[in-house]
Amino acid sequence: xxxxxxxxxxxxxxxxxxxxxxxxxxxxxxxxxxxxxxxxxxxxxxxxxxxxxxxxxxxxxxxxxxxxxxxxxxxxxxxxxxxxxxxxxxxxxxxxxxxxxxxxxxxxxxxxxxxxxxxxxxxxxxxxxxxxxxxxxxxxxxxxxxxxxxxxxxxxxxxxxxxxxxxxxxxxxxxxxxxxxxxxxxxxxxxxxxxxxxxxxxxxxxxxxxxxxxxxxxxxxxxxxxxxxxxxxxxxxxxxxxxxxxxxxxxxxxxxxxxxxxxxxxxxxxxxxxxxxxxxxxxxxxxxxxxxxxxxxxxxxxxxxxxxxxxxxxxxxxxxxxxxxxxxxxxxxxxxxxxxxxxxxxxxxxxxxxxxxxxxxxxxxxxxxxxxxxxxxxxxxxxxxxxxxxxxxxxxxxxxxxxxxxxxxxxxxxxxxxxxxxxxxxxxxxxxxxxxxxxxxxxx
Length: 444
Description:
4-stranded mixed β-sheet, 7 strands
């Protein structure tokens, strides 16, 4: 006769691992029991997970963590091999293996290369540092593409001995930009992936994964670079093969990331879909459609957190900016410049910034786009567009005042849709400036 199993008195679980069940035993002891899942394989899997994955995986990270890390691993492997080919070319260019080469000349070339890279790093951080949080995915991809260009320049450098130093300095400037852009956006993506205030753990395990991949790439490079040392054709063939893999893996990695915060590209898609369909799309839908690369040199058309003098220039304009406006921001249009400036009130929060950005984007749509594809509030918006085109005033204060009324009607359903579809409204990545103003101090 079979002995009945002892009843489970309590249980526990470590992260997402199988539960441990506790049953009563002789003498009133509690005895833990594991379900038999293959002890040896379970132990090996547990060890590898603890070494290379954040504690609590997969519950402690975002849902896009695994696909991103897998493609990031592929691109890192390919980049390590192309980097080895570039290092071989640079060493050849500075005279390694050449008995007539001067140690002093090689040292000077190396110092100039490093020095220009340091200057490039400082300048890029100054010019674009505030954009890296806002468009982390785009700058991440840009960094890797620029790294491929830098590596190609280094491979070509030995064929131009007369300007070798200049060529490697240019390459080093590109790599400095890659270092700033890649490092900063890696931090932004780690912040997105960490879901239990475990950013340091996620970052540390990412470093372990990258080290392992680089080691594998180094071993592969040790096998391939001697074969390519005396063959220019093989060097180019290996470079283009692994660079193609590198670019493909990077595109897949960036496309796999689903950010729930609103930046300017995602905000534009959100508003257009809302006006087109009356519903707010989900983060995966919007992320799949946002641009892959950042805009490098285009002048900013939306200035969030602008100083008051860029929004209003007279008491008349201040009156017009506050007309029909009880919100925590002021809007000013410069139609000829194609610019909308937004002044934020002191104490304004993320919801105020989101509303201001949606309002500014609505103004851009009315001023610059065909509204026939947007059925939501279609008649009202087309009337506003007709009046704006007939208006000769560059500042368009009538349009600003009227769109405040439209925004009052749209904001509640828009915010409800954004919040209920998984978007994070507690913070935003809209790249606002630090100016904050006060108005309404005197009643007109």
